[in-house]
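Incident log entry.

Two folding requests arrived from the same account within the same minute. Monitoring flagged them as a possible duplicate submission, but the sequences differ. Recording both here for audit purposes.

Request one:
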Amino acid sequence: MSYNKFTSIISVRIKALSVSALVANRLSRMKRGVPFSIENFYSLGTTTSVQKAMSRLAQTGEVVRVAKGFYSRPKPLPSIPSIKITAKAEDVAQTWARTHHYKIAPQGLESAYRLGMQTQAPVKAVYWTTGPSREFHVGHQTVQVKHTTETKLQWINKPEGTLLRGLLSLSPEHTSVATLLMAIKRLNLPENEAIEVIRKLSNSQILKMWHSKLHQLESNLR
């Protein structure tokens, strides 16, 4: 073996070791039980070297692969330290959406249930997203993510968005103004903000069938 070839092999091995150390060091500062994307580590070396480093850490139990390209540091269960939890399936879905810059929110029935407009909790955890449809499985937890339009995902993390998605899962003919008043109260908004939310929804074309009920709701708040 020539000297140049030998030094080249040694150099590659040193770089691989340094990438592993960098990955392990960054990982040690991350919270346990919180999912993360391997893409967060690609700045530390080549894609291949980072993937190999993460694979070795998974083999030793330092991390657990919770979905393709997503990992989590195991977290001991406080009551039973010998049992370790990885991450919630819903958190994995949220991390996946954030990584790929997709919008994501609980689907309409979940929003309706949270606002008291639906008495029965959805059997499955379902989210709407602007990304592709898929499922996430972590332990016994399953979260279904369904592709939908941007229109249904307006006002993410805002009260009007939660109410919008709740209304989209219900029928205006079978929903009383009293039920809508209860939903508004659950949003915990001052009266002027609640009226502003209702007016925004009244101007939404996808809630055209709800316009009459929303006007009645606004009148009841005055």
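Request two (distinct sequence, not a duplicate):
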Amino acid sequence: MKFILIFGPQAVGKMTVGQELEKITELKLFHNHMTIELVSPFFSYGSEAGKRLVGLFRREIFEEVAKSDLAGLIFTFVWALDQKADWDYVEEVCGIFESRGAEVFLVELEADLDERLSRNLSPNRLQHKPTKRNTEWSENELKTSMEKYRLNSYDGEIKRENYLRINNTDLSAEEVACRIKHEFGL
């Protein structure tokens, strides 16, 4: 089994790259908004109840996939690298898969702000992420979160063996997915 964690700031292309990687591998995509959108009609993701429910659903899916006969899972995540809780969460999730003998791969995406603002309006993003359809709010959230948190790593900060960092400002999602597949032999 393989577990691919694709992380980076909002609108960097995590879900779209994950969709393309799913097409060219036997891995299933579980993008972070699948649970956010499930919970959001009832509780804001920022609320205590919203965070708790999203966390519970994600953990249950990770546990079930890790013990299944699936080839593996692609998961997307906005990782605040200056927050210990996010480091702990990444280790916990990776540990779920590693405890079952899965190989874990981390892919970090980065892109220029102008490109991310453009991607924030893409039809694919808005189709799969209804909570992002208020584009004024979404753009503001994108900008304020990058001021509040560090959403890309420092050089050498990620110590895991199977780690790849890609600046995808000028790359298509298909190109990035092919590079990930080739780099990790998926």
